[in-house]
Amino acid sequence: MKITVITVDEQFITLDVDPEESVENLKALLEVETRVPLQQQQLLFNGNELNNSSKLSSFNVKDGELLVMKVATAAPSRVANNDLNINPDGSCVNPGAFQQHVRHDSNMMTQLLQTDPELAQVILGNDLNKLQNLMRDRHQQRSHLRRQQEEELALLNADPFDVEAQKRIEAAIRQKGIDENWEAAIEHNPEAFARVVMLYVNMEVNGVPLKAFVDSGAQSTIISKSCAERCGLLRLLDQRYKGVAHGVGQAEILGRIHVAPIKIGDVFYPCSFMVLDAPNMEFLFGLDMLRKHQCMIDLKDNVLRVGGGEVSVPFLQEKDIPAQFLDRQASDSDIVPETSGAKEVKDNIPTRGQSSGTSQGDVTQTPGFEAKVTKLVELGFSRDAVVQALRISEGNEEQAAGYLFGG
């Protein structure tokens, strides 16, 4: 709002102020315009004097109102000096008086503009609250620096043969190196301190749209029980593939859905899933399907290319990822199985043409079994996964490879 102030020499000064502005801040603005010290100003509205600590709105000062400024008798110099004092927390006793004192000292302002331009700009501004906050920050910085210097001095004066003192010196040197490394990272690699958002893309599973977490460090493609039910796939759950998935943590494998259509971009692809009882994870597009459909994670263009590049879908920006996914991101690694170096342990996995619980000759004892294991392990799979695949395929190397690749 705009208000007009008539001064003692009958000048009219129009100011643009906030209704919630304090009277003290208004006087500070008038001090800039009239050169009348804040302490000597008296502001009258409708015959009533406005108190420094009150807000304009409390006196019902509205847009277009007229205020009268009078000059009171100058306060004793002792009071003026007290107004320049600093509180224990570093803030000014009288921020308006301190601001004007520094402004009128040309040598001090020149020094501030060279050594602390941030503080100089605040003093030249009109926001006294910002000045107070900055003064408190400067006080905390000085206190922290002073404590560090005292600790360093104590270490220098310590007994060189004192084992505990040597340990403190060693810790101080190590911390100094860490601080220098941190400062270098802040300057040259600031993005390292930002949160890394995982890779998500829009997909459709059995016609149901969802946001898939793309994870090349997960061996298998995974869908949660609730998500599979929402997609109408739970009826296809093969419970013969129950087991326990071990990664950073572990989760129960409820079974396997052998094939279902997923839509990436405008193209449909067949996909198989492990169904987990993992409420913190909805759908994870793992390495098995990434390999099967020749996917490429293109971080330069920020897209997932499928089918050797026939389809490209962009990775979602952070604003497009549901908040619950971001909140759970830190804990997902504790429950998502098949992370790099992890293995999946499946119980009760039937062999072809055989029901769960039936017995069969151990294919691990057949001739050439170890050679097959070695060849499949060289493709990047763990030995346990290869052995399980060969058991399922009754020792057929090609069928085991197809199973491992998600075929």
TrEMBL record:
<dbReference type="GO" id="GO:0005737">
    <property type="term" value="C:cytoplasm"/>
</dbReference>
<comment type="similarity">
    <text>Belongs to the DDI1 family.</text>
</comment>
<feature type="domain" description="UBA">
    <location>
        <begin position="362"/>
        <end position="407"/>
    </location>
</feature>
<dbReference type="InterPro" id="IPR009060">
    <property type="entry name" value="UBA-like_sf"/>
</dbReference>
<dbReference type="InterPro" id="IPR033882">
    <property type="entry name" value="DDI1_N"/>
</dbReference>
<keyword id="KW-0963">Cytoplasm</keyword>
<dbReference type="GO" id="GO:0031593">
    <property type="term" value="F:polyubiquitin modification-dependent protein binding"/>
</dbReference>
<dbReference type="GO" id="GO:0006508">
    <property type="term" value="P:proteolysis"/>
</dbReference>
<protein>
    <recommendedName>
        <fullName>DNA damage-inducible protein 1</fullName>
    </recommendedName>
</protein>
<dbReference type="InterPro" id="IPR021109">
    <property type="entry name" value="Peptidase_aspartic_dom_sf"/>
</dbReference>
<feature type="compositionally biased region" description="Polar residues">
    <location>
        <begin position="351"/>
        <end position="365"/>
    </location>
</feature>
<dbReference type="InterPro" id="IPR015940">
    <property type="entry name" value="UBA"/>
</dbReference>
<dbReference type="InterPro" id="IPR029071">
    <property type="entry name" value="Ubiquitin-like_domsf"/>
</dbReference>
<dbReference type="GO" id="GO:0004190">
    <property type="term" value="F:aspartic-type endopeptidase activity"/>
</dbReference>
<keyword id="KW-0064">Aspartyl protease</keyword>
<keyword id="KW-0645">Protease</keyword>
<feature type="domain" description="Ubiquitin-like">
    <location>
        <begin position="1"/>
        <end position="76"/>
    </location>
</feature>
<keyword id="KW-0378">Hydrolase</keyword>
<dbReference type="Pfam" id="PF00240">
    <property type="entry name" value="ubiquitin"/>
</dbReference>
<feature type="region of interest" description="Disordered">
    <location>
        <begin position="336"/>
        <end position="365"/>
    </location>
</feature>
<dbReference type="Pfam" id="PF00627">
    <property type="entry name" value="UBA"/>
</dbReference>
<dbReference type="InterPro" id="IPR019103">
    <property type="entry name" value="Peptidase_aspartic_DDI1-type"/>
</dbReference>
<dbReference type="Pfam" id="PF09668">
    <property type="entry name" value="Asp_protease"/>
</dbReference>
<dbReference type="InterPro" id="IPR000626">
    <property type="entry name" value="Ubiquitin-like_dom"/>
</dbReference>
